[in-house]
Automatic annotation (TrEMBL):
InterPro entries: Homeodomain-like_sf, HTH_AraC, PchR_regulatory_protein. It comes from the Bacteria. SUPFAM superfamilies: Homeodomain-like. This is Transcriptional regulator, AraC family. It comes from Arcobacter nitrofigilis (strain ATCC 33309 / DSM 7299 / CCUG 15893 / LMG 7604 / NCTC 12251 / CI) (Campylobacter nitrofigilis). GO terms for molecular function: DNA-binding transcription factor activity; sequence-specific DNA binding.
Length: 318
C-alpha cells in the first residue's frame, strides 16, 4: 500500500533566504516522517541532508519554479521521480547520483520505505560563472524544457556524501568542513560532465595563430594584472571564446585559466598578509572575494594555514 501527499511549501525549503532550521514532514497514522536539514553554504549553494523513515511507500507531489541545478546523491534506499510535465520516470538507487537542470518542476516522488541522502541546489548565477562551457543556459534545448537530466548513474562521490551526512564537527570548523566537501563534490561531478562533453569537442577544436597570441596575452594579463578578472571577462578582453580559452590553456600551459587566476590571487594575498598593514577583510576584497569567510576557506585549502596565523607573525596585526 502507498500513501499520497501534496507538498505545497517546497519553495520555502529551497529559498536561500529562509531559515536553516530542520524541516520535518510528519505523516498521519504513524506512517512515518521525512526530515531535512538545510545549510546555506553561500549565496548560490544550498545543502540538504534528508532522512525518510516510513512503514509504507510514500508519494509526494510537489511543484516549483526555479533556475538552477540540483545534485542528489542517494546513500540508502530507492526513490522514484515521476516528472508530471515531461511524463518521464527515473529510478534512483542506493549509491547513485542524479543531476538535473531545472526551470520548473512538477514531480511525484515515491519513497520506497526508508531512505537517506544528500542534495545540493546550485543557483543559475554560479553555473553561468563557473560552468558555462558545460551548460549553455540560454540554449533553446535548455529553455524549452522544464528540466533536463544531465546524469543518473553510480556516484564516485559516495565517500564524500557519507562524510557530509555524518559530519563530526560543530561551529566554525563544521562550516569549513562542509564547504570544502561540497565544493569537492561539485568539482568532481562537473569535471566528469566536462570530460564527456569535451571528449567530443576536442576533435573539432582548431587553435589558430591568432588564438595562440590571444592565449599568451591572457596568461600575461593574469600574471601581471592585479585586477583578477573572471574567466569570462578575461576571454572577452583577449577576444577569444571562453571554451577555446580553457581548451588552449590546457594545451599550451597544462592548467586552466581559473587555476592560474586562483594561484595569483593566493600568492598576492599571502604577500599582503605577510608584508602589508591591511586587514584580512581588506585583503579579501583586494583579491576579488565578496565575503571574508570565502576567502579564508580558499586560503586554507591552498596553503593549509589560516590567514590570521600568518598575520600573527607581523609586529602588528588585525
Amino acid at each position: 500500500m502507498s500513501y499520497n501527499f501534496t507538498q505545497d511549501d517546497i519553495g520555502k525549503l529551497l529559498s536561500r533566504f529562509s531559515s536553516e532550521n530542520d524541516y520535518t514532514l510528519t505523516f498521519p497514522d504513524n506512517i512515518g516522517s521525512i526530515s531535512s536539514q538545510k545549510k546555506i553554504i553561500n549565496d548560490d549553494i544550498l545543502f540538504f541532508k534528508s532522512k525518510v523513515l516510513t512503514s509504507n511507500n510514500i508519494k509526494i507531489q510537489s511543484n516549483q519554479k526555479m533556475n538552477g541545478i540540483y545534485v542528489g546523491i542517494l546513500l540508502d534506499g530507492t526513490v522514484t521521480y515521476n516528472d508530471n510535465i515531461l511524463n518521464k520516470s527515473i529510478i534512483l538507487k542506493k549509491n547513485e547520483t542524479k543531476i538535473s537542470y531545472i526551470n520548473e518542476f512538477d514531480i511525484t516522488t515515491i519513497f520506497n520505505h526508508s531512505s537517506n541522502g544528500i542534495g545540493l541546489f546550485i543557483e543559475k548565477n554560479f553555473i553561468e560563472k563557473n560552468f558555462s562551457e558545460i551548460l549553455d543556459l540560454n540554449s533553446k534545448n535548455i529553455q524549452k524544457e522544464s528540466s533536463t537530466t544531465l546524469k543518473c548513474k553510480n556516484s564516485n562521490n559516495i565517500h564524500l556524501a557519507k562524510e557530509l551526512f555524518t559530519s563530526p564537527f560543530h561551529g566554525g570548523l563544521h562550516d569549513v568542513y562542509m564547504q570544502s566537501k561540497i565544493l569537492e563534490i561539485i568539482y568532481n561531478e562537473f569535471n566528469e560532465l566536462t570530460f564527456h562533453k569535451q571528449s567530443t569537442k576536442d576533435k573539432k577544436v582548431k587553435i589558430t595563430k591568432e588564438d595562440i597570441e590571444a592565449l599568451y596575452k591572457a596568461r600575461e594579463i593574469i600574471l601581471q594584472n592585479k585586477d583578477f578578472l573572471t574567466v569570462l571577462n578575461l576571454s572577452k578582453k583577449v577576444a577569444i571564446n571562453e571554451f577555446k580559452l580553457k581548451y588552449g590553456f590546457k594545451k599550451l600551459f597544462n592548467t586552466t585559466p581559473g587555476n592560474m587566476i586562483l594561484e595569483q590571487k593566493m600568492i598576492h594575498a599571502k604577500e599582503l598578509i605577510e608584508k602589508s598593514e591591511f586587514s584580512i577583510s581588506e585583503i579579501s576584497n583586494f583579491v576579488g572575494y565578496k565575503y571574508q569567510q570565502s576567502f579564508t576557506n580558499a586560503f586554507i585549502r591552498y596553503f593549509n594555514i589560516r590567514p590570521k596565523d600568518i598575520m600573527k607573525r607581523r609586529k602588528y596585526y588585525y
